Amino acid sequence: MENNEDLFTLYKKIPHDFLNPDVILPFPPPGVFFPEYPDITFAIETLPLQLLYSAYMQGSFPWFNEDEGEPVIFYNPHIRFCLQMEKLHIPKSIDRFLKHCPYTFTMDKAFTQVMEECRNVTRKGQDGSWIGHKMIHAYTEFHKKGYAHSVEAWQDGELVGGLYGVLIGSVFFGESMFTKKDNSSKAAFTVFARSFKECGGKMIDSQVYTDNIARYGASNISRTAFLHLEKELLYKPLEKDLITQFNENAKKTTGPTSANPVI
User: Fold this and answer.
1) Whole-angstrom Cα distance, residue 209 to residue 77?
2) Is 82 within 8 Å of 205 (Cβ atoms)?
């Protein structure tokens, strides 16, 4: 393995918007370059799409605070919080809510707006946001390439909740969500999770523990177990078109016509 400086020099030359899915840029194992940080694999100043894609293909993801001047830091945690779809459990309260839901749901209609709303969320114990301009630009381009996706909840033409993440094979890597109205993101996630499972989706990676996703049946697994699952599932495509299935399920909710988004 080349040293950090060699990889940094090599990877920063990559055209930002270039992406070849047949090419996976090697990442060092966690803790090799930064022994004092055993969950970090790599750090660099830029975030080209080829590097972003390669990270997900090897169990890593970017997580850094651009506002504080941090470089692009890639993590591969020793404990991963995942929802394996055979364990999916829909909370009864959300099921009841969806039967009289005031929202309508879409997928991939307002990707960048969802990211910006997620950026603006104030989270307890967190100063600022890891969703800076580099992240928004990179993931918007990743969205245009067909890998990053958003789910939106609308009410009276206003975006009131949603989430975004990355889909590769039969794994969805959840990145962030936001809520402006009661149960909006939970309801959107529920419609998505059901649709994802019905299409043959196998795992939703939530990265770190959250009470919300735990209610759906997610649990912690080791890095070794995660990488073993990922190695198989990243190359297993979905059995049906996810957006088509999502739209069908979204129609089953009872959001009023006035909730339709204005795009």
Assistant:
1) 11
2) yes
Tell me if residue 186 falls in helix, strand or coil.
helix
C-alpha closest to that of 212 among 189, 191, 230: 189
Q: Could you give the CA distance from residue 121 to residue 102 in angstroms, rounded to a whole number?
A: 22
DSSP helix/strand/coil, 200: coil
Q: What does DSSP say about strands 158-168 and 148-155: parallel, antiparallel, or unpaired? A: antiparallel
What is the number of H-type helices and E-type strands within the chain?
9, 10
Contact 149, 199 (CB under 8 A): no
Q: Distance (Å, rounded) from C-alpha 81 to C-alpha 125?
A: 20
Segment 80-108 shows an average pLDDT of 96
pLDDT at 256: 58
E-state strands within the chain = 40-44, 61-62, 72-75, 79-84, 104-107, 148-155, 158-168, 171-179, 203-207, 219-222
* Banded model confidence at residue 262, pLDDT cuts 50, 70, 90: very low
Query: Measured between alpha carbons, how far is residue 72 from residues 92, 179, 193, 235 in Å?
Result: 40, 27, 29, 26
Strand order in the sheet with 79-84: 104-107, 148-155, 158-168, 171-179, 203-207, 79-84, 219-222
pLDDT of residue 1: 47
Gap between the Cα atoms of 204 and 144, Å rounded: 21
End-to-end CA distance of the chain: 47
Q: Rounded to an integer, what distance in angstroms lies between the CA atom of residue 50 and that of residue 78?
A: 24
User: Does pTM top 0.90 for this prediction?
Assistant: yes
Q: Residue with structure tokens 């609308």?
A: 154
pLDDT tens for 3-28 read 555 776 778 778 888 999 999 999 98
